[in-house]
Automatic annotation (TrEMBL):
Residues 28-52 are annotated as: Disordered. It comes from Agreia pratensis. Transmembrane segments: none annotated. Coiled coil: none annotated. Keywords: Signal. Residues 31-52 have a biased composition (Low complexity). This is Glucose/arabinose dehydrogenase, beta-propeller fold. Residues 1-21 form the signal peptide. Residues 74-368 form the Glucose/Sorbosone dehydrogenase domain. It holds the Pfam family GSDH.
Length: 388
């Protein structure tokens, strides 16, 4: 494995490919029934998936070549590219939104107010909607009372890029010191998907009326779509413990990674209204027809999964406790492989750059890792097709 520590040209290349990979998704008809009413109406830019559906086909794997795009990030949690302006990173404990520009320069463009960083809580997932001058940044974070999602207009460009005033999207999500979920992504349907942890109320992950232990689906204003599986509810799937990764394949298949308890971490294919079994079952070996089994599982010491991305036919999964990058090939019986074991430390998020490479952030400064010189780091990971 080779690691290069300077990367101005590489980050400019990554930004250019992200611009080419962006695509506009259709907007289905939906109702205006809200799970938690937004404080004010928000102009909706054209919906753009957070994780652009990758046009590549076939399996991919890392070549072992890593390029460091930015160093000295503080407990980074989520990657959110913003076109030609660069890449946004959320810092969990400082509540800062950090921009890595195409020249590799790093600066905070604003902070998120009201964040209570405690345990696994703080400023977590980010997602960007729209492009050009009509862009909004969505952020999931923990307060003293709840988890919530807000959105900010992104104003200016380049050196003047900054956050406008916040608008609430959904509030009142269960919180705890652990199991806060926190991933955001716009799907191919242009709707916002939100992962929530069970907030240490494990039995309530089976309760559709409880918004913890779920994957939620709303529009950009927090309204519930008419075709959600449970009437007037943002709940899209249930029976989750602590899901922290969601992404879509080119055919629209939705994948989600989930922290297990003591036995199995999981990779699931998400279907609307489906029940994934927590806390009644964990892992693949269940004959209970009420629950959908994962397509892959790992011992918790090997994975502790967080962010995921899809490139071609391959799902890439960040491993925190496992300190490695996993790949899953759903077309080959969900075959799994591991990369970079013990070399980068904890890996928090991955993002498809759209050119057959990945963006990846480490997470060694979150209080559970062993920070190394320059941690935490945003990397570009070179991939190669393994077809034929």
């Amino acid at each position: 494995m080779s690691v290069r520590r300077t990367a101005t040209a590489s980050i400019a290349t990554a930004v250019a490919m992200l611009l080419l990979a962006g695509c506009e998704a259709p907007r289905p008809e939906r109702t205006v029934t809200t799970a938690t009413p937004p404080v004010a109406a928000t102009p909706e830019p054209s919906p753009t998936p957070t994780e652009a559906v990758d046009p590549l086909v076939g399996p991919y794997s890392p070549t072992g070549d890593l390029t460091a795009l930015a160093n000295d990030l503080a407990a980074p949690w989520s990657i959110a590219p913003v076109g030609a302006d660069g890449i946004l990173i959320s810092e969990r404990d400082s509540a800062q939104i950090v921009l890595i520009d195409p020249a590799g320069q790093k600066r905070a463009i604003g902070g998120v107010g009201g964040v209570a960083a405690n345990g696994e809580g703080g400023l977590l997932g980010l997602a960007v909607q729209g492009d050009g001058t009509e862009r909004r940044l969505f952020a999931y974070f923990t307060t003293a009372d709840d988890n919530r999602v807000v959105s900010f207009p992104l104003t200016g460009t380049g050196a003047s890029l900054s956050l406008g005033p916040a608008t609430e999207v959904i509030t009142g999500l269960p919180k705890a010191s652990n199991h806060n979920g926190g991933r955001l992504a716009f799907g191919p349907d242009g709707l916002l998907y939100i992962t929530t942890g069970d907030a240490n109320q494990r039995d309530r992950a089976q309760d559709v009326g409880y918004l913890g232990g779920k994957i939620l689906r709303v529009d950009a204003a927090g309204s519930v779509p008419a075709d959600n599986p449970f009437a007037n509810s943002p709940v899209y799937s249930l029976g989750h413990r602590n899901p922290q990764g969601i992404a879509w394949g080119a055919d629209g298949t939705m994948f989600a990674a989930e922290f297990g308890q003591d036995t199995w971490d999981e990779m699931n294919i998400i279907e609307p209204g489906a029940n994934y079994g927590w806390p009644d079952v964990e892992g693949i070996d269940s004959a209970d027809a009420r629950f959908v089994a994962p397509i892959a599982q790992w011992a918790t010491d090997d994975a502790s999964p967080s962010g995921i991305a899809v490139v071609g036919d391959t799902v890439f999964m960040a491993g925190l406790g496992g300190e490695r990058l996993w790949t899953i090939d759903p077309t080959e019986g969900a075959e799994t492989r591991e990369y970079f074991a013990g070399r980068l430390g904890r890996i928090r998020d991955v993002y498809s750059a759209g050119d057959g490479s990945l963006l990846l952030i480490t997470n060694n400064t979150d209080g559970r890792g062993e920070p190394r010189s320059g941690d935490d780091t945003l990397y570009r990971v070179t991939l190669a097709s393994t077809s034929g």
